[in-house]
Amino acid sequence: MNWWKLMEVLMLTTSITVCGKESVSIRELETQTTGTAEEIIVRKVEFDFDQDEDENIKIEFDTKVRYKNPTVTITDDAGVQYDNEIVERDWDDLELWVDGLSKDGIYTIEISGIKQRNAKDFGTLKIEAQTERQIEEQKFYEDEITVKSSGMDRNIYIEDIEVEWTSNGKNIIDIDFITKVSYEKPTVTIKQGKDTQEATIRERDQDDLELIASDLKPGETYTITIDGIKPKQTKQTGTLTIELKLREEIIDEKTDVSNTTAARLKEAEYDREDEELELKFVQKITCSRDCSVIVTDRYGKEKELYILEIEKDEIKVDTSEIELGSSFEYKISGIKTAKETSYGTLSGKIVPDRD
Predict the structure, then answer these.
(1) Residues near 146 by Cβ (< 8 Å), separated by ≥ 6?
(2) For 100-114, what is each residue's pLDDT tens digit?
(3) Quick one: which of 18, 129, 241, 314 has the most CB atoms within 10 Å?
(4) pTM assigned to the model
(5) How many CB atoms lie within 10 A of CB 194?
């Protein structure tokens, strides 16, 4: 993402806000593996729209892969096929150059001659990635992340940061770099107010740093300091300082007596295009025959939504007949956890992720 090179004339201590306009990293992907027994898991697809780069699509795998005379076909949602070239391939990523790549496209990428490393046969991996949606989602980070490089020959730039909350109270912080980086005995500290903790480095490579921390709280601002890091192929290591404001809790569960079940929401996703709302729970749940989901529309009026699907830890409902606000109240009746003997109700407020 060399558009950041326009900023190289600035001092190395310049503070920069991430905007995510020229590069997007997509993790919510539709994938399918055919012709080989073992499924290939894709970690993310990174699109880079700077025409000066040697590659503009990078596919990162969670599964270790092998290739045999691989070929790639790329089409958009209108059926137009794009000329492409494999720039580099490795056991954990594949880099491509694609002519005419658009920021607002929906692309289907088919890779033939690929397999999970230990699988017997080579097959085909199909990936669908929608760049326009991800550009909209990354706007969330505007004015939320500031980055400062010091003591280095060049600046380090960040694409985005994702923070996950785990069931054991730990936090996983995934930092995606735009600049390729290298390390020399790196250490990481995280400070919030007067409290400082040393983060554990879980995994590191040239474009990603994964950390484990404790007790991070939604809505709070943290300073992450990484020592012993530098842009790749430069001499001087230095310090990268990141100021990160975490997003607010998306689930605000009421604690009044109306909650008569131990079931708790973990996540809510609202797909405006498909007009569906997915409610994901911490525990496995079951629902009674008269289970209902009631939400308030943008005007505060209650509406019962049609339930499309109930899975072991998820309820999907139809939102085609309601106009939802950015946040709304919900009430779920006739629900229980797998361990409970009777059905109850759960209510609260949702600020969902939006596709």
Answers:
(1) 15, 16, 17, 18, 242, 243
(2) 887 777 889 999 999
(3) 129
(4) 0.40
(5) 5
